Amino acid sequence: AIERTLSIIKPDATRRNLTGKINAKFEEAGLRIVAQKRIKLTMDQAGQFYEVHKERPFYGELCEFMASEPVVVQVLEGESAILKNREVMGATNPADAADGTIRKEFALSVGENSVHGSDAPDTAAQEISFFFSGLELVG
Ligand code: CMP
Protein backbone atom coordinates (compact mmCIF):
# COMPACT_ATOMS: atom_id res chain seq x y z
CA ALA A 1 0.00 0.00 0.00
CA ILE A 2 1.02 3.62 -0.45
CA GLU A 3 2.17 4.91 2.95
CA ARG A 4 3.63 8.04 4.50
CA THR A 5 6.43 8.11 7.03
CA LEU A 6 8.14 10.82 9.06
CA SER A 7 11.83 11.38 8.42
CA ILE A 8 14.28 13.66 10.22
CA ILE A 9 17.66 14.65 8.85
CA LYS A 10 19.57 15.12 12.10
CA PRO A 11 22.00 17.88 13.16
CA ASP A 12 25.16 15.90 12.35
CA ALA A 13 23.98 15.70 8.72
CA THR A 14 22.54 19.23 8.27
CA ARG A 15 25.79 20.60 9.74
CA ARG A 16 27.84 18.73 7.11
CA ASN A 17 25.59 19.90 4.22
CA LEU A 18 24.33 16.37 3.53
CA THR A 19 20.62 17.19 3.09
CA GLY A 20 20.77 16.94 -0.72
CA LYS A 21 22.77 13.70 -0.75
CA ILE A 22 20.37 12.12 1.75
CA ASN A 23 17.32 13.30 -0.18
CA ALA A 24 18.82 11.79 -3.35
CA LYS A 25 18.94 8.40 -1.58
CA PHE A 26 15.25 8.67 -0.70
CA GLU A 27 14.25 9.71 -4.21
CA GLU A 28 16.39 7.01 -5.87
CA ALA A 29 14.56 4.45 -3.70
CA GLY A 30 11.19 5.71 -4.99
CA LEU A 31 10.27 7.72 -1.90
CA ARG A 32 8.63 11.07 -2.69
CA ILE A 33 9.31 14.03 -0.38
CA VAL A 34 5.77 15.41 -0.02
CA ALA A 35 6.51 17.87 2.81
CA GLN A 36 9.74 19.27 4.19
CA LYS A 37 10.94 22.05 6.49
CA ARG A 38 14.10 23.06 8.32
CA ILE A 39 13.50 23.83 12.00
CA LYS A 40 15.44 24.10 15.25
CA LEU A 41 13.90 22.03 18.03
CA THR A 42 13.78 23.24 21.61
CA MET A 43 14.85 20.78 24.33
CA ASP A 44 11.16 20.47 25.29
CA GLN A 45 10.13 19.61 21.74
CA ALA A 46 12.95 17.06 21.36
CA GLY A 47 11.99 15.55 24.71
CA GLN A 48 8.35 15.27 23.70
CA PHE A 49 9.18 13.76 20.32
CA TYR A 50 11.40 11.09 21.90
CA GLU A 51 9.20 10.60 24.99
CA VAL A 52 9.04 6.83 24.30
CA HIS A 53 12.78 6.69 25.11
CA LYS A 54 12.64 8.75 28.30
CA GLU A 55 13.74 5.91 30.58
CA ARG A 56 16.76 5.08 28.42
CA PRO A 57 20.23 6.09 29.61
CA PHE A 58 20.88 8.04 26.39
CA TYR A 59 17.65 10.11 26.53
CA GLY A 60 19.27 13.33 27.79
CA GLU A 61 22.12 13.10 25.32
CA LEU A 62 19.69 12.31 22.49
CA CYS A 63 17.50 15.34 23.25
CA GLU A 64 20.50 17.69 23.60
CA PHE A 65 21.85 16.49 20.28
CA MET A 66 18.52 16.86 18.47
CA ALA A 67 18.12 20.41 19.84
CA SER A 68 21.74 21.42 19.19
CA GLU A 69 21.38 22.60 15.60
CA PRO A 70 18.68 22.70 12.90
CA VAL A 71 17.07 19.54 11.58
CA VAL A 72 15.11 18.92 8.39
CA VAL A 73 11.77 17.22 9.07
CA GLN A 74 10.00 15.66 6.14
CA VAL A 75 7.20 13.36 5.06
CA LEU A 76 8.15 10.60 2.63
CA GLU A 77 5.46 8.89 0.58
CA GLY A 78 5.53 5.72 -1.49
CA GLU A 79 4.79 2.02 -1.70
CA SER A 80 5.62 0.50 1.71
CA ALA A 81 7.27 3.79 2.62
CA ILE A 82 7.81 2.95 6.30
CA LEU A 83 9.80 -0.22 5.64
CA LYS A 84 11.46 1.17 2.52
CA ASN A 85 12.72 4.19 4.44
CA ARG A 86 14.12 1.92 7.15
CA GLU A 87 15.97 -0.07 4.50
CA VAL A 88 17.44 3.07 2.92
CA MET A 89 18.51 4.38 6.36
CA GLY A 90 20.21 1.13 7.44
CA ALA A 91 20.73 -0.11 10.99
CA THR A 92 20.59 2.40 13.89
CA ASN A 93 24.25 1.79 14.66
CA PRO A 94 26.32 2.66 11.55
CA ALA A 95 28.72 -0.15 12.49
CA ASP A 96 25.89 -2.59 11.69
CA ALA A 97 24.50 -0.77 8.64
CA ALA A 98 24.62 -2.40 5.20
CA ASP A 99 26.65 -0.99 2.32
CA GLY A 100 24.87 1.73 0.36
CA THR A 101 22.63 2.80 3.24
CA ILE A 102 22.51 6.38 4.52
CA ARG A 103 23.86 5.47 7.96
CA LYS A 104 26.69 3.38 6.52
CA GLU A 105 27.78 6.24 4.27
CA PHE A 106 27.15 9.26 6.51
CA ALA A 107 26.49 8.43 10.19
CA LEU A 108 29.16 9.24 12.76
CA SER A 109 27.95 7.07 15.66
CA VAL A 110 24.83 5.40 17.07
CA GLY A 111 23.78 8.78 18.51
CA GLU A 112 24.85 11.01 15.61
CA ASN A 113 23.30 8.69 13.04
CA SER A 114 22.17 11.27 10.46
CA VAL A 115 18.51 10.25 10.08
CA HIS A 116 15.41 9.18 11.98
CA GLY A 117 12.50 7.30 10.45
CA SER A 118 9.17 6.14 11.89
CA ASP A 119 9.09 2.44 12.77
CA ALA A 120 5.43 1.51 12.24
CA PRO A 121 2.14 2.86 10.81
CA ASP A 122 0.83 4.13 14.17
CA THR A 123 4.06 5.94 15.07
CA ALA A 124 4.31 7.33 11.51
CA ALA A 125 0.86 8.94 11.81
CA GLN A 126 1.66 10.29 15.27
CA GLU A 127 5.10 11.64 14.26
CA ILE A 128 3.78 13.27 11.06
CA SER A 129 1.10 15.11 13.01
CA PHE A 130 3.72 16.19 15.59
CA PHE A 131 5.46 18.30 12.91
CA PHE A 132 2.95 18.93 10.10
CA SER A 133 -0.61 20.22 9.82
CA GLY A 134 -3.04 18.85 7.26
CA LEU A 135 -2.60 22.04 5.20
CA GLU A 136 1.11 21.33 4.78
CA LEU A 137 0.49 17.88 3.29
CA VAL A 138 -0.31 17.70 -0.38
CA GLY A 139 -0.43 14.39 -2.22
P1 CMP B 1 16.29 7.20 16.16
O1 CMP B 1 15.79 6.35 15.05
O2 CMP B 1 16.20 8.66 15.99
O3 CMP B 1 15.52 6.81 17.50
C1 CMP B 1 16.10 6.94 18.78
C2 CMP B 1 17.54 7.32 18.72
O4 CMP B 1 18.27 7.10 19.90
C3 CMP B 1 18.25 6.48 17.70
O5 CMP B 1 17.83 6.85 16.40
C4 CMP B 1 19.71 6.76 18.02
O6 CMP B 1 20.24 7.87 17.35
C5 CMP B 1 19.62 7.08 19.50
N1 CMP B 1 20.33 6.03 20.24
C6 CMP B 1 20.05 4.72 20.26
N2 CMP B 1 20.94 4.08 21.04
C7 CMP B 1 21.79 5.00 21.51
C8 CMP B 1 22.92 4.96 22.35
N3 CMP B 1 23.36 3.80 22.86
N4 CMP B 1 23.56 6.11 22.60
C9 CMP B 1 23.10 7.29 22.08
N5 CMP B 1 22.03 7.38 21.27
C10 CMP B 1 21.39 6.25 20.99
UniProtKB/TrEMBL annotation:
The keyword Lyase does not apply. Major role in the synthesis of nucleoside triphosphates other than ATP. The ATP gamma phosphate is transferred to the NDP beta phosphate via a ping-pong mechanism, using a phosphorylated active-site intermediate. This is Nucleoside diphosphate kinase. It comes from the Bacteria. It catalyses: a ribonucleoside 5'-diphosphate + ATP = a ribonucleoside 5'-triphosphate + ADP; a 2'-deoxyribonucleoside 5'-diphosphate + ATP = a 2'-deoxyribonucleoside 5'-triphosphate + ADP. Its main location: cytoplasm. The keyword Transcription regulation does not apply. It is found in: Cytoplasm. Its EC number is 2.7.4.6. GO terms for molecular function: nucleoside diphosphate kinase activity. Homotetramer. Belongs to the NDK family. Its cofactor is Mg(2+). ATP binds at K10, F58, R86, T92, R103, N113. PANTHER family: NUCLEOSIDE DIPHOSPHATE KINASE. PROSITE patterns: NDPK, NDPK_LIKE. The gene is ndk. Pfam families: NDK. It comes from Thioclava arctica. Keywords: ATP-binding, Cytoplasm, Kinase, Magnesium, Metal-binding, Nucleotide metabolism, Nucleotide-binding, Phosphoprotein, Transferase. SMART domains: NDK. Residues 2-139 form the Nucleoside diphosphate kinase-like domain. Gene3D superfamilies: Nucleoside diphosphate kinase-like domain. The active site is at H116.
